[in-house]
Amino acid sequence: MELAVNKMKKQRKRGRTFTEWLKSRDGQKVLVITAFMVIPLVLLFVFTYLPFGEMFSYSFYNMKYTGARKFVGLNNYRKVFTRDDCFGALKLSLYYMVGSVVQLALALYLATVLSFKVKLGGLFKGFMFFPYLINGIAIGFIFKFFYTRGFVFDTVLSWAGFSLENLPYWLRDQRINNWSLVGTSVWRYFGQNMVLFIGAIMSVDSDLYEAAMLDGANKFDQFKYIILPSIKTIVLLNVILSISGSLSAFEPPYVITDGANGTGTYFVVMHQIAHTQQKVGLASAMAIVLLILIFIATIIQRLLFKFVFRNAEDEDTNAAARRSRRLARAQKAVKGGAGA
Fold first, then answer.
1. Which CATH superfamily is domain 79-339 in?
2. Rounded to two decimals, what is the model's pTM?
3. Per-residue CA distances from 289 to 118, 240, 262, 308 (Å)
4. How confident is the model over 18-47, as pLDDT tens digits?
5. How far lies 150's CA from each of 67, 157, 159, 168, 258, in Å?
6. Distance CA 205, CA 316 (A)
7. Which of 267, 222, 3, 216 is nearest to 115 (CA)?
């Protein structure tokens, strides 16, 4: 026994070797933590930051995928704002931004209704969320036939009494074709926004609704003063996702119209310039400009929401305290009346 104790003391004095430490519990812990940290960072660098750096360098060259490169400096960035196809495609994002506002309003309204007990509410949530689960290419083909002259949409409108001759060409008429594509995006994505809103609304303390009803607040007041301030973080998230998606809309115009008849969004034009015209440098500059625009839009949205909800937290805290006190007094009064 004494020999074993002396041996352990000697090992402690001379310390452990690296191999012994690596096989120990502490060494294994550090090894696992390092592996789980390093491997994702390496993958992130190789497949995200390294390609982005290469793309950024391409934006300063006049080049194709193969062949010689010619350094042109900022000329590609100037072309993004001077070429009609590039800058004109950027304007089409306004259609999708308007659609995103409608999408968020519809999602927030349905989420508010479905967050409370509604008959067949779970089934309705599933139906509304289902389009988001469908592949975007499949949705594009579905709506391509839906909007085709004489097909589904025209047939339904003819049942409602509209004459086929008086109906526009939904994908050819430039007064309405972009709105048709926006409707496709709204139909697909508002279910995702709705589910996010429902999750946030259901996390609100139910005592606040009871206190508000005791104060005489109606449903709109509850939405304005309880629900909306409580879910402001999710609202901001959905707004950022919607605006970013509006700037980078691709699947509906690419699959349904292939960018024809003035429906080519920024991503569709960038795809054509990169892969059809083989102007890799210009397409890379377009991608960098889009990234900057999304970043600026995100910053503006955050500042705007910070301004709108600048006093929301203090008001929420004070209002919740007042409502809790009133609820406690009401419950005390009810118990006192029952005891009498």
1. MetI-like (1.10.3720.10)
2. 0.75
3. 46, 17, 21, 28
4. 777 777 888 888 888 888 888 889 999 999
5. 48, 10, 12, 11, 20
6. 12
7. 222
